[in-house]
Design brief:
The protein is an alpha+beta fold. Helices cover 22% and strands 25% of the residues. β8 and β9 form a beta hairpin. The structure holds zinc ion. The site of zinc ion (ZN) has 6 residues, from loops.
Amino acid sequence: MPFDLEQPGGLPSYRSSLLAAFPEVVHGFFTRLGGVSPGPYRSLNLSFGVGDQGPLVVRNRELVRQALGLTGLASATQVHGCRESLVTAANAAPDGEIPDADILITRQPGLGLLIKQADCQAVMLYDPVRRVAANVHCGWRGQVANILGEAVTRLRERFGCRPEDLVAALGPSLGPCCAEFRHYRREFPAELWPYQVRPDYFDLWSLSRDQLLAAGLKSHCIDIAGICTRCREDEFFSYRRDRITGRQGAVIGIRD
Ligand SMILES: [Zn+2]
């Protein structure tokens, strides 16, 4: 389904209509627009780790928190691993980061799970039966490690979530138009090579869809924005395009 562009609190963000169907869920895939950072971080940079000024990042995060009407935002230093963090009021801080996690999970109403990205995928998961939300930082290394399958397993083990109940939304990220991997024979195992759509270019969106299906999700419960961050310079940060740049945010939470 197409994602809708909305402007909560004056900040543009894309919303998945699948997730928007649950009134208890608040979520948004933000763009680079509407923040206060200058230069290559213009303007809604949400990462402390890219050279931007810390107080401006805090201000940008506050804008996002307010736009979604959340009481707090939690984010982690993302390391392209598969470690998860269970987010509670205790470890969500506007100016701090949970150490080394690429899967954030919460059942705590009012807390937003923030994934920062500039070409990598943010994949939101929600279980409407057990009211558990997760947000996954999914770059190509995460895909090689099947981080989406790992996230579904953690949800099952920790909360008894059934994969067939889960809804997934994959936001703006590197599209098949721009996902060039010249060293793919070294970087990808052979079972990922069929995702090559033309020489050296890969469809990482389809790969994520297939990994979610393999984890047990239903195809009609997977929503993909189909928007490429590298192609849309005015709208999104792209590491591949600009190298020195900011990170946009994707946030999901359960309404207070
Ligand atoms: Zn593209």
